[in-house]
Amino acid sequence: MLAIGRGLMAEPKLLILDEPSLGLSPLLVEELFTLIKRINADGMALLLVEQNVVQSLEVAQRAYILDNGMFVLEGKAADLKNDPDLKRTYLGM
Asked: For each of the chain's 93 residues, which pLDDT tens digit applies?
């Protein structure tokens, strides 16, 4: 989270986050995604690369789902959250 703060000090037009939740405790992951949502709501454009599909779709406006380096699903995050293929394949439902 400190790195995100330092990155924002440079006032970028786009903030790119690659696996920001990797290795964090569940409580810190929640805090991180709350921060990401707030940063985006304040007008900052974000590119989030993240394996946590559930959390990512909660903060994203648009998503691209990759499997073994290939795009398998893409669209509005709100639509993908309810996609039966995503639920069956990636969320184990």
From this structure: 667 878 788 888 998 989 988 888 889 889 989 999 999 999 999 999 998 888 899 999 999 988 888 888 899 999 998 888 787 666 555
Q: pTM for this structure? A: 0.78
DSSP of 15-71, one letter per residue?
A: EEEESTTTT--HHHHHHHHHHHHHHHHTT-EEEEE-S-HHHHHHH-SEEEEEETTEE
* Per-residue burial over 24-53, b = 16 or more CB atoms within 10 Å of its CB, e = otherwise: eeeeebeebbeebeebbeeeeeeebebebb
Q: What are phi and psi of 67, to 5 degrees?
A: -135, 120
Query: Please, what sign has the CA dihedral across residues 25, 27, 31, 37?
Result: positive
